[in-house]
Structures are given as structure tokens and as C-alpha cells.
Amino acid sequence: MAKQPDPWRTLAGEIQALRRELAEVKRRSPYAGAGMAPNGNNGVQVDGDLIVSGNFKLDGQGDVDGSLDVGGSLRLDGTGTVGGTWKSSQFDGNLGTGAPGTTGWAFDDSRAILPELVLRPGSIGNDSLTEPVRAARLHDDAKGFGVGTAFATILTATITVPAGYTQALIMSACVGATAYNNTTAVDFLYTRLVVSPGGLLAGWAIGSVDVDASGTGVSYDFRSGLLTGLTPGTTLTFTGQVSSAFGAWAGASYNVANLDAAILWLR
Hints:
By secondary structure, the chain is mainly beta.
């Protein structure tokens, strides 16, 4: 048989090479060169960033160690685990420094910055909150004091506004005093409780009782109220004061007084 020309041999070689390449492609993973591969657990591992220009739906579990950019909607029917940060394209804050920005959302494993958060009633239990309310109480007592015609402070109790709180709901505050009228005329024993800042709190009347000459009287002043706009670290001062209407009463060992207050700190 006559020798075939060189072009024939070249064409045959190309066909053989093409067959080998097709066989190699058939054996090769369809993910080769794509930055992803099966993980051997019925899943796909993506080594780089996953960028989706349309919608992204995940029916199973997804683990993202890098970034995930989705131009459309993202739907998770299973569990999603993110090793980095998730944020919306409109987010203009700084998650690292805690700057909230003005729009968008972002979160990682240490903090979340969200727009308005709407929750169903009762969806957060008290155990999940970090001390939204803190209780406190105050007490002071005195004895042996005298009573004059001008209000004088005989009781003082102070408390510091705790960090993170700006309001004080004073559930109950009371000054009670027992004093002996050693004069020769009927007189009145007045008591009042003053909070600084805050003044007399709710109500205008003060404790008052008429006391006979050489008699003993007991007077109480009860208060409650809400103080707002407080600065953490500043001091609230509760003072109990007494006075008479007409004359000065000498000090006596059985003149006694108490001041008590119950407070709820609010954020």
C-alpha cells in the first residue's frame, strides 16, 4: 500500500490525542479548577468566596468560612454556620468597633447590629435579660434629737446611681418620728422626706400630728415617685426632717426617728 501523506498521519494523531483528552475529562471531577470540590459527606466545599448574582437557597446545612455575597435573596431551610461576618449591602456602620451606623445590618459571633427589632410579646424571658431592673433599699435612724420651729435634718441616707441606669422608681420612702413636747402648750410635730435631686416627690402634704403639752406624738411622711434623667455615678440623697409649729422641744432620749426607702433602678 502506498505511503500516506504527512497530513493524514497528523490528523490521525490529533484524533487519538482528542480521545485521550476526552477520557481524561470524563475521569476528572466536574469541580476541577472551580475552587470547590465534594467533601465526601454529600456536600460541596468552596475554598474561596462564593458569589451569587441571583437568589440563593440552602435546604441543608451550610458552613461559610470566608465571605458570601448574594445579589438576590438568601433562603435557609436548614442550618447556616458563618465563620466570618454577615452584613447587608446597605450596612454603613462598623461591626468591629460597635459603631451602629444609620442603615443595614451586620453580625458575627460576638455582636449584632440591627435596625428596628420587632419581637412577639413574651418572646424574651427575664432569664435572658441582663438585669433590666435592680432593687435597692436605704435606712437610717436617729435618737435624742430636739425639735425646732424650722425643719432640720435628723436623718440622711445616700445611694449611688449604678452604671447603665438612668431612672429610679421609688416604690416607697418614709420618715417616721416620735418626739416629746416638753412645752406647756399644745403643738404640732411635722415630718417630711426630701430627695436630692427630686425634692418632695409625689404629693404636697407633710406628716403632721398634734401633741399635747408634756405629751408624745408620732408623725409619718410617706413618699413615692419616679426620678428620670439620672446620671450613673451620681448620688441620690434622702433626708428626713422634723419641725414643730410653735415652740422648741428639748432633746430627749426617747425621741427616735427612722428613714426607709425601697428603690427600683431602671435603664
